[in-house]
């Protein structure tokens, strides 16, 4: 059986690591995974996660999506792009260079890689480009202005490219997680805590510190998925005969993104989020606690059912 070649970027941690390990462990051994990362010295966690698949259905290679020379020899009929960089805080406190770095990684990193692999995929008339996007590519979130902008760029780019891709029998799929509990998110939060707020006005600084950062952990604990969960969703999309263009991985977050499509004027999601944050914060926190309880009970029930079956 001919294996499909899968190139995955950003595999040193988080979603990229989980995705590489999951696809390499595909029960039918349908894939040969080339798991890449910018710094090979950070590959220990992937080696451990890969286990016996290493050297069989998974190989680790160096790739930096911000370096064109690093991707020149990359050629695959199938791809998954995952490299990402986050940034939170008031824009007054962020430099243009910092913003450019986020865009360079999250958007232009994707563009560089596709410029290299797309011509060969077109010649073959075969392939599937899977991009790890975000619900923030659909809907902006408070104090995630630049990160959301980078994901909006990814979504617009892929939506435009998807029409052309169909002409060459190519599929493009955007995987759109909500909050994901990873080392990536922990680092973003820790960097947020270090933000120099001296350039922000008092109201904005208070909003960031006492509303956004204060609720950050609770939102992730309540709505957050694991990397393995997102990887499982992605594996299912990859193995479909007719994969969708968009796939949201977190059903708890879907009602929030649905607001975007419910009002063509765009006012509904903005007004709803404003009222949730500033007018009904007690209801918002109570809702988070309720959702957290439901998820705990659901997981406990699932565990008990598994125990009964063993």
From TrEMBL:
UniProt: substrate binding residues:
134
Question: Catalyzes what?
Answer: all-trans-retinol + NADP(+) = all-trans-retinal + NADPH + H(+)
Cell location: Membrane
A GO term for molecular function:
all-trans-retinol dehydrogenase (NADP+) activity
Asked if Oxidoreductase is a keyword of the record, the answer is yes
Source domain of life: Eukaryota
Which annotated residues bind NADP(+)? 10-38, 64, 151
Catalytic site positions = 147
One Pfam family it belongs to: adh_short
Enzyme Commission number(s) from the entry: 1.1.1.300
The record's listing under Gene3D superfamilies reads: NAD(P)-binding Rossmann-like Domain
In which family does this protein belong, per the annotation?
Belongs to the short-chain dehydrogenases/reductases (SDR) family.
Protein role: Retinol dehydrogenase with a clear preference for NADP. Converts all-trans-retinal to all-trans-retinol. May play a role in the regeneration of visual pigment at high light intensity.
Protein name, UniProt field: Retinol dehydrogenase
Q: What is the species of this protein?
A: Lates calcarifer (Barramundi)
């Amino acid at each position: 059986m001919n294996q499909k070649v899968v190139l995955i970027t950003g595999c040193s941690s988080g979603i990229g690591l989980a995705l590489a390990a999951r696809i390499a462990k595909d029960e039918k051994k349908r894939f040969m995974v080339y798991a890449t990362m910018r710094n090979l010295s950070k590959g220990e966690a992937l080696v451990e996660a890969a286990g016996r698949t290493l050297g069989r259905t998974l190989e680790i290679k160096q790739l930096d999506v911000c370096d064109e020379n690093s991707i020149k020899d990359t050629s695959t009929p199938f791809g998954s792009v995952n490299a990402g960089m986050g940034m939170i805080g008031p824009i007054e406190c962020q430099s243009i260079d910092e913003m450019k770095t986020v865009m360079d990684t999250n958007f232009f990193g994707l563009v560089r890689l596709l410029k290299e692999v797309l011509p060969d995929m077109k010649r073959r008339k075969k392939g599937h480009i899977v991009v790890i996007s975000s619900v923030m590519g659909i809907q902006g979130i408070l104090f995630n202005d630049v990160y959301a902008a980078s994901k909006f760029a990814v979504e617009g780019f892929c939506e435009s490219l998807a029409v052309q891709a169909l002409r060459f029998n190519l599929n493009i799929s955007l995987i759109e997680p909500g909050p994901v509990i990873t080392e990536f998110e922990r680092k973003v939060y820790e960097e947020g805590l270090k933000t120099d707020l001296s350039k922000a006005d008092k109201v904005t600084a208070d909003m960031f510190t006492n509303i956004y950062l204060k609720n950050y952990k609770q939102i992730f604990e309540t709505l957050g998925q694991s990397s393995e969960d997102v990887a499982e969703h992605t594996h299912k999309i990859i193995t479909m005969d007719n994969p969708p263009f968009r796939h949201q991985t977190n059903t708890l977050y879907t009602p929030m993104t649905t607001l975007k499509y419910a009002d063509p004027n765009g006012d509904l999601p903005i007004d709803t989020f404003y009222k949730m944050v500033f007018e009904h914060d007690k209801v918002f926190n109570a809702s988070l606690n309720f959702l957290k309880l439901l998820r705990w009970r659901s997981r406990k029930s699932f565990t008990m059912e598994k125990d009964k079956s063993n």
